[in-house]
Amino acid sequence: MAKILEKQVLRSDLVTAKIAAPEIAKSAKAGQFVVIRVDEHGERIPLSLAAINPEEGTLGLIVMTVGVTSSKFAALNVGDEVLDVAGPMGHCTPIENYGRVALVGGGFGAAPMYPIGKALKAAGNTVTSIIGARSADLLIYEKELGEFSDQVLVSTDDGSKGHKGLVTEVLKDEIEKNGVDWVMAIGPAIMMKFVSLTTQPYNVKTFVSLNPIMVDGTGMCGACRVSVGGKTMFGCTDGPDFDGHQVDWDLLMSRQRSYLDEEKVAMENYQCNCVPSAK
Ligand SMILES: Cc1cc2nc3c(=O)[nH]c(=O)nc-3n(C[C@H](O)[C@H](O)[C@H](O)COP(=O)(O)OP(=O)(O)OC[C@H]3O[C@@H](n4cnc5c(N)ncnc54)[C@H](O)[C@@H]3O)c2cc1C
Ligand code: FES
């Protein structure tokens, strides 16, 4: 059991929570994730670490509501408990002094970028954080990333803040104007694919945090298979970070859609309260 100590609703589809998980917080590193089960009817879902505080014994999580389990998590309040939290899982992001690094966050991705960016800054890098959203009111983590970034660049689809357009245009501009030695992207697969396609012609090493469907998170079930450089890898035990230039993006995205029909039915049942969870 892990108690929710703090909760904040960032947007209608995004909540952050601080949970008590002292054993995990002791050994977790930026870039790793946990697998949680909200209640006894729930499935196991992986969530990245948006904050790690070993002194306090707490972890920060961010959850985007896309289906039943994420909606159940978002409905929890301070004082409620998550049934189980397993971790830390996966490899941590390799933190080195690369020189000029650019971090690109989309969707919930700006939050797990926070501990990674902080560690990269502490390692001596010049850090540019790039975040994007449809409009200014949907941007998250601009202030938090500003705590350590040398600059935070923003793009919005409607031009209500920063560059009008896509994060990839901002990234391309930054590579051409100032030069970038290393890129990390976290967010929807489609965004990470286009970040990788943007950096490839410039030969800038690009790490992406992949989000295939995971079940056990320990390399046993094979649900998280991805193809990287023509080799089959497990997102949970070989990743979650991979070289974005080597990822078979179309395969990843088609595997992410494997259970769409079942997920739709489960969400309809959850919303009409017919059964606790159809999963
Ligand atoms: C390493 C990793 C870290 C992640 N970190 C975060 C995070 O910090 N915040 C966040 O909001 N989301 C994160 N995700 C995605 C998150 O796990 C899914 O959104 C969640 O599992 C959806 O479950 P659901 O029941 O709410 O939705 P469902 O209706 O079950 O699924 C909606 C979509 O989510 C994806 N999904 C479903 N089940 C899983 C699963 N077990 N594992 C992975 N993806 C799944 C599928 O693409 C699916 O189509 C991460 C995924 C991975 C692999
Ligand atoms: S989640 Fe089962 S092998 Fe990776």
In a nutshell, what does this entry contain?
Helix 4 links the parallel strand 10 and strand 11 (151-156). It contains 8 helices and 17 strands.
Topology:
Elements lengths: L1 E10 L2 E7 L1 H6 L5 E5 L7 E4 L2 E3 L4 E7 L3 H8 L5 E2 L1 E6 L10 E6 L7 H10 L3 E8 L8 H5 L4 E6 L6 E2 L2 H12 L3 E5 L2 H11 L5 E5 L15 E4 L2 E4 L6 E3 L5 H8 L3 H12 L8
Parallel strand pairs: 9-10, 9-13, 10-11, 11-12, 13-14
Antiparallel strand pairs: 1-2, 1-7, 2-6, 3-4, 3-8, 5-6, 14-17, 15-16
Helix pairs in contact: 5-6
The site of flavin-adenine dinucleotide has 25 residues, from strand 4, strand 6, helix 2 and helix 8.
Number of individual domains: 2
Structural class estimated from helices and strands: alpha/beta
Radius of gyration: 18 Å
The residue ranges in which pLDDT falls below 50 over 5 or more consecutive positions are 274-279
Strand content: 25-35%
Number of helical segments with 4 or more residues: 8
For this structure, the quaternary state is single chain
Biggest beta sheet summary: 7 strands, mixed
As a percent range, the share of helical residues equals 25-40%
The CATH topology label of the largest domain is Rossmann fold
CATH second-level architecture of the largest domain: 3-Layer(aba) Sandwich
Based on DSSP secondary structure assignment, what is the total number of beta strands? 17
CATH class of the largest domain: Alpha Beta
- In whole angstroms, the N-to-C terminal distance is 21 Å
**H/E series, N to C?**
EEHEEEEHEEEHEHEEHEHEEEEHH
Query: Which molecules other than protein and nucleic acid are bound?
Result: flavin-adenine dinucleotide, FE2/S2 (inorganic) cluster
Shape: globular
Provide the residue-averaged pLDDT: 93
Strand order of the largest sheet: 12-11-10-9-13-14-17
CATH level-four homologous superfamily name of the largest domain: Nucleotide-binding domain of ferredoxin-NADP reductase (FNR) module
